[in-house]
Structures are given as structure tokens and as C-alpha cells.
Write a structure and sequence with these properties.
This protein has about 210 residues and is an alpha+beta fold. The chain is built from 4 helices and 8 strands; from the N terminus they run H-E-E-H-E-H-E-E-E-E-E-H. Strands 1, 2, 3, 4, 5, 6, 7 and 8 form an 8-stranded mixed β-sheet that branches. The radius of gyration is 17 Å and the shape is globular.
Length: about 210
């Protein structure tokens, strides 16, 4: 089923802590773990007017949920997310996330699904799910792993026209299938849990 994208709410503030790193790939990202206790979850008071005006996120777990980084990624549980108001095909959206050392977002449970949808107040955006290899078997597009969670609109996925192999999520936290070649906004994710454990992952630089 085809739907149309609209505008987003952008969030931005500075994370209070930093993460140590040693990889040569990350030398361009300055870090100083001494500036704050490791895994500090204090939220900066300088949130955007959109948040202050009453945008309410359903924070279901993790003491760090709702923390916004200086590069616009919003933390929830084991991940941090950022929505991008740039229309791209599913493939190009994946590439754009890779270009910021992230991956296209995909919710793996109800909590992540609700939080990801809450990044916008209307419209839809791509998630990292497709059934291009085997019709009706929805997998993580990057890993080909079967998805442990899905929340489809009633009557979806319907593979209308025989070409709807990619998935989008609505602001109501419901999924829909549509052709991968259509253009949609998108959201990227990074692995906060790995960064908290000081794992050497270039994606952690976007938590600073």
C-alpha cells in the first residue's frame, strides 16, 4: 500500500558523557572519557522548542532513554536513533545511514517500534526490512536474519502489484509494504549498548 511522507520533528542537544576509543578509523572523532562518569545519562536542558511544546515520547525502559546526542541521535534502550527528512529509495536510505556510520533502523520489539515511530508526528519512513528474496518472509535487509517482531497495518503486507518488497513504518507505529524504488524519509540507528561497553565501533562516535 502506497502512502506519502511528510515533515518531522528534529531534536538536538549535547550528550553529557563521552566514550573512549582506540581504533585508527576513529581518530577524527575527539573523545575525552574523563569529562564525565562513564555511561552518564544526564539530559541537557537545552532541548528544542518542539520537545518543550509537548512532544511526549513513550520511554519504556533504560535509564538513558530520551537522551539526545550532539549529532541528533536520540537514545532508547540499546540503540540510538535519528530521523532524516530526505526522501530516498530504500537502497539509498541504507547507503545514507552507512555514510554516517549507522544502519537503517529496524525495531526488534514493541518498545523500539513505539519509540521509533514517535520520532515523527505524521507520515511514514523506511525501516530495514524486506521480503525480496522469499515473498512473505520478512528479514533484516543487511543481515538476512528473520525479523523477531512486526506490526503490520490490517490487511498488510499485501504485495500490491507484485512489487512491494520493502517496509515503512507510520507515525502510528504500524508497518506497510511498498516498492523499494519509491522515495521515503528514513531513520538510522547506532548500537548504544556496544558503546556503553567500550566496544571499538566507529558508530559510537555519533554518540558524542
Amino acid at each position: 500500500m502506497n502512502t506519502n511522507p511528510t515533515l518531522i520533528v528534529c531534536l538536538s542537544c549535547r550528550k553529557s558523557s563521552s566514550i573512549a576509543a582506540s581504533s585508527a578509523r576513529r581518530t577524527s572523532f575527539a573523545k575525552d572519557s574523563a569529562t564525565a562518569p562513564h555511561n552518564s545519562c544526564a539530559r541537557s536542558p537545552t532541548l528544542t522548542s518542539a520537545w518543550q511544546a509537548g512532544m511526549q515520547l513513550q520511554l519504556l525502559d533504560s535509564t538513558c532513554s530520551g537522551q539526545v546526542t550532539s549529532k541528533g541521535f536520540l537514545r532508547y534502550g540499546d540503540k540510538a536513533y535519528r530521523h532524516f527528512a530526505s526522501s530516498k529509495t530504500h537502497w539509498d536510505a541504507r547507503n545514507s545511514c552507512w555514510n554516517v556510520n549507522a544502519s537503517l533502523a529496524v525495531p526488534l520489539n514493541a518498545g523500539e517500534n513505539a519509540f521509533l515511530a514517535s520520532l515523527v508526528n505524521t507520515g511514514t519512513f523506511w525501516i530495514l526490512a524486506d521480503d525480496a528474496t522469499t515473498e512473505g518472509v520478512w528479514v533484516n535487509t543487511d543481515t538476512s536474519d528473520p525479523l523477531p517482531y512486526a506490526r503490520w497495518i490490517v490487511g498488510q503486507p499485501d504485495n500490491a502489484g507484485g512489487t512491494e518488497d520493502c517496509a515503512e513504518i507510520t507515525y502510528q507505529a504500524l508497518w506497510n509494504d511498498l516498492p523499494c524504488t519509491l522515495s521515503r524519509y528514513y531513520a538510522c540507528e547506532i548500537p548504544v549498548a556496544q558503546c556503553d561497553q567500550l566496544k571499538d565501533d566507529i558508530r559510537c562516535s555519533y554518540l558524542l
